[in-house]
Q: What sequence folds into this?
């Protein structure tokens, strides 16, 4: 695990440094020569180029392994930057900054997509939530290093142009890290994909995206996210170009500002991002960024109209809103988007990820570029851009909620059915009912499963309701789980305190049976509330030795039940927990006062609240009482000498026998 995370983080750090040494000199030279009014044309060029790149990568990934695809992308990037550096250095061809500005917004999602795709193969969904924020945070660290380095080197190197040579060398370092990762994990990264059928290869990329609701929603989410980020970026660049007309001053500002952005992002990633994602899940990860932008853009719009767009306060605010949004993107958004791909079958993930992240950003930039051209043609104020950012962020926030619902549905579908499931029947007449009755009486378990499925599918037609609806199903589920948790917690407390006392073996066995039965009961409750096939397969997958399968099952239960209820459910049904871990998990969900073994045993036998209502468990408790309570066992046994249950009565009399 450590080596995987180290290599992935190394790649994102190198990617951040590489991108910083590209954008700092290229943007400074471009803005100084052509001004911010030319930026919309670069956005439109990005849209067109992005479509072409997406088509090429989509075709390449059908034939190349992930490792070879990464090498192809990085080699092409290094060649482009090296040629641009040579043209600027020896021919003063400033026009070459235009394609560099086009490359900049393309290489970021492509590079992060390649790292994310590797993460998806090297980590399971739970590991992604816990560790990917820090991996992606490496990009912020690298960008900070690159920004500070560019600002420091621009003077000694004699201007912005030599920084592009440094950028090409950094690209070589990233290429080396990618090759080393593939060398260490060839099974995951060097496997050649299975060939696709001709009809699939002939489909347009857009139609492929539209074929899956999860992919479509995530694509829309990515488009709105990229559009918002580009609008925020334009606001800062446009205002910065006005405040810093000299290329060297602008280069220095870009470098230092980039460092501020990425130091903030690093602190957020290290201190909060992973904890927030682990605690609150992908839903918060998808919604937090657009929610923050909505608030800040609303404040910025109001401030701009009140104080003016040329004030220092407005400039500082638009810088702050970009700093916060980029920090949330590095810490939450990218990891959450990568987690959503885990709800797709393995064979579809890379293709979906390529389509979403390679095409999403260009589409967004094309839309933003068109809007900014209209903005310039109509002579609108920069405050209009801030207002449009607010509207786009609101739509982004709404789509975040939908993306989380589709993610949850995708996880459930992943675990909904085994590779082969008998077809269900729908009972519509007496003859079909007789057929189902024969299946129920069969000795073949598959026949019985077909019959039970038929009864479930037909309950509305015949007036049967195996799971009647209540006013608050979620509350009912939690109440049922809490009741089972009380049983298990008490059973584990008693087991912990028996310490091999004489006569306790029957009680130990009975308590173990109680724990097992409570797990089964909890599973049944979850199955009734959230789907039989999904829950049963999830519980089964929890015992899988494959971390990916277990992680997928845990994540499915969490997004289906909610974090709080899922924690309680997992404390009951997770087969991988030993007594200590299960007791700790239950205590975290419902803390209990410490009681002695003797007190627990008395409660188990007397059952004052009717918690157990199990004569056999009471009999076992009485049998263990002399070894635990000594002479005080007589007092406990007296009320049960005439118990209706003969085993309980006989055991009580045995406790009271003369020594």
A:
């Amino acid at each position: 695990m450590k080596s995987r995370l180290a290599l992935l983080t190394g790649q994102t750090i190198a990617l951040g440094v590489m991108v910083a040494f590209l954008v700092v000199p290229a943007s400074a030279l471009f803005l100084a020569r052509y001004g911010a009014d030319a930026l919309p044309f670069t956005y439109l060029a990005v849209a067109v180029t992005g479509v072409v790149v997406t088509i090429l990568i989509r075709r390449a990934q059908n034939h190349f392994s992930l490792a070879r695809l990464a090498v192809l992308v990085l080699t092409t990037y290094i060649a482009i930057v090296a040629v641009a550096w040579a043209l600027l250095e020896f021919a003063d061809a400033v026009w070459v900054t235009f394609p560099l500005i086009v490359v900049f917004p393309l290489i970021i999602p492509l590079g992060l997509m390649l790292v994310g795709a590797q993460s998806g193969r090297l980590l399971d969904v739970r590991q992604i939530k816990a560790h990917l924020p820090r991996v992606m945070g490496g990009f912020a660290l690298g960008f900070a290093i690159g920004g500070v380095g560019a600002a420091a080197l621009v003077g000694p190197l004699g201007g912005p142009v030599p920084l592009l040579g440094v950028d090409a060398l950094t690209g070589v370092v990233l290429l080396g890290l990618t090759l080393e990762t593939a060398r260490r994990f060839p099974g995951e990264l060097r496997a050649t994909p299975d060939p696709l059928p001709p009809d699939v290869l002939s489909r347009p990329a857009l139609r492929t995206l539209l074929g899956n609701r999860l992919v479509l929603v995530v694509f829309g989410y990515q488009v709105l996210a990229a559009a918002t980020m580009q609008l925020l970026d334009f606001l800062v660049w446009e205002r910065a170009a006005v405040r810093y007309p000299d290329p060297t001053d602008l280069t220095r500002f870009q470098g230092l500002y980039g460092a501020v952005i990425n130091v903030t992002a690093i602190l957020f990633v290290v201190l909060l991002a992973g904890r927030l994602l682990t605690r609150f899940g992908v839903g918060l990860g998808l919604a937090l960024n657009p929610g923050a932008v909505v608030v800040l853009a609303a404040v910025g719009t109001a401030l701009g109209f009140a104080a003016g767009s040329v004030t220092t306060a407005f400039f500082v605010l638009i810088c702050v809103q970009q700093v916060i949004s980029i920090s949330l993107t590095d810490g939450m958004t990218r990891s959450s988007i990568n987690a959503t791909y885990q709800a797709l079958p393995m064979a579809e993930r890379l293709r979906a990820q390529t389509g979403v992240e390679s095409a999403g950003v260009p589409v967004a930039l094309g839309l933003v570029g068109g809007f900014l051209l209209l903005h310039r043609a109509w002579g609108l104020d920069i405050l209009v851009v801030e207002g449009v950012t607010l509207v786009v962020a609101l739509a982004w926030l709404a789509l975040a909620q939908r993306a989380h619902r589709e993610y949850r549905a995708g996880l459930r579908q992943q675990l909904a059915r085994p590779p082969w499931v008998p077809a269900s029947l729908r009972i519509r007449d007496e003859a079909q009912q007789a057929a189902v009755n024969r299946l129920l009486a069969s000795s073949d378990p598959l026949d019985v499963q077909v019959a039970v499925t038929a009864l479930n599918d037909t309950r509305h037609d015949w007036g049967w309701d195996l799971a009647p609806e209540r006013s608050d199903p979620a509350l009912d589920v939690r109440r049922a789980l809490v009741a089972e948790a009380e049983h298990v917690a008490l059973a584990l407390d008693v087991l912990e305190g028996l310490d091999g006392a004489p006569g306790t073996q029957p009680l130990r066995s009975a308590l173990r049976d109680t724990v097992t039965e409570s797990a089964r009961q909890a599973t049944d409750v979850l199955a009734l509330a959230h789907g039989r096939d999904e829950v049963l397969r999830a519980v089964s997958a929890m015992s899988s030795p494959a971390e990916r399968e277990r992680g997928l099952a845990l994540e499915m239960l969490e997004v289906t039940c909610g974090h709080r209820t899922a924690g309680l459910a997992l404390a009951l049904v997770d087969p991988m927990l030993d007594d200590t871990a299960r007791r700790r998990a239950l205590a975290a969900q419902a803390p209990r006062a410490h009681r002695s073994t003797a007190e627990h045993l008395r409660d188990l036998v007397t059952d004052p609240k009717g918690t157990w209502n199990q004569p056999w468990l009471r009999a076992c408790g009485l049998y263990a009482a002399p070894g635990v309570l000594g002479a005080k066992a007589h007092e406990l046994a007296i009320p049960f000498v005439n118990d209706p249950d003969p085993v309980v009565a006989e055991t009580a009399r045995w406790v009271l026998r003369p020594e």
